[in-house]
Amino acid sequence: MIKPDAVQRGLIGEIVSRLEKKGLKIVAMKMLNVSRELAEKHYAEHREKPFFESLVSYITSAPVVAMVVEGKNAVKVVRTLVGATNPQEALPGTIRGDFGMDIGRNVIHASDSLESAEREISLFFKPEEIVEYNRIDEDWLYE
Ligand code: IDP
Ligand code: MG
Q1: How far is the CA of 106 from the centre of ligand 1 (A)?
Q2: Element (H, E) at 13
Q3: pLDDT value, residue 56
Q4: In sequence order, what are the residues at sequence separation of 6 or more whose Cβ sits closer than 8 angstroms to the Cβ of residue 26?
Q5: Among 22, 76, 79, 109, the one annotated catalytic
Q6: DSSP string for 37-95
Q7: Using an 8 Å Cβ cutoff, are 66 and 32 in contact?
Q8: What's the predicted TM-score (pTM) here?
Q9: Residue ID of nearest Cα to ligand 1 atom 11
Q10: Using one digit for the tens of pLDDT, what is the confidence trace for 117-136?
Q11: Torsion of CA 68, 23, 10, 99, to 10 degrees
């Protein structure tokens, strides 16, 4: 999910482009305003954290772009492209490392496991919003 700061800063294209060029297949994508209810569900695991309120207020402050991407080991690959949670520690070349300055404005969200991906996808998308297709370059992306 491209977070509100990245949408406001005009980084949607850059971020989508990085995922696309890596070879990840985008199978769903939408812009939406995250409601407080959705934000609380999405970040349920952080409910007891001191930053929970500011996190919910951040993610609901402007539109986001939610995506579902597929690929071999997609969860791990995306987390690697995204970089460390704190953009000040994220390596250059990663999305957070290249575009962020503050842990509370860290540009992008990425699911951390297949289980959380499944849970989060079901919060943001109806099954019929996820598209099945082949990318023409798949034979050249994978051995
Ligand atoms: P992740 O996004 O890298 O998976 P999580 O630990 O799951 O990191 O935290 C979820 C989000 O909560 C982070 O992306 C960041 O926006 C916010 N966050 C995490 N830790 C802090 C903190 O210490 N202060 C403020 N915000 C935080
Ligand atoms: Mg997380």
Answers
A1: 8
A2: helix 12-22
A3: 98
A4: 16, 19, 20, 67, 68, 69
A5: 109
A6: HHHHHHTGGGTTSTTHHHHHHHHTSS-EEEEEEE-TTHHHHHHHHH--SSTTTSPBTBH
A7: yes
A8: 0.98
A9: 55
A10: 999 999 999 999 999 999 99
A11: 100
What tokens were used for 75? 């969860």
Catalytic residue flag (residue 46) = no
Backbone angles phi, psi at 70, to 5 degrees: -120, 155
- Cα–Cα distance between 24 and 132 in angstroms, integer? 13
**Does ligand 1 have an atom closer than 6 angstroms to the CB of 84?**
no
Please give the single-letter amino acid code of residue 56: V
Q: Are 16 and 119 in contact (CB under 8 A)?
A: no
Q: What is the pLDDT of residues 25-35, one digit of tens each?
A: 999 999 999 99
Q: What single-letter DSSP state applies at residue 128?
A: G
Give the residue from 115, 99, 118 showing the smallest Cα distance to 107: 99
The answer, yes or no, to whether any atom of ligand 1 lies below 6 A from the CB of 63, is no
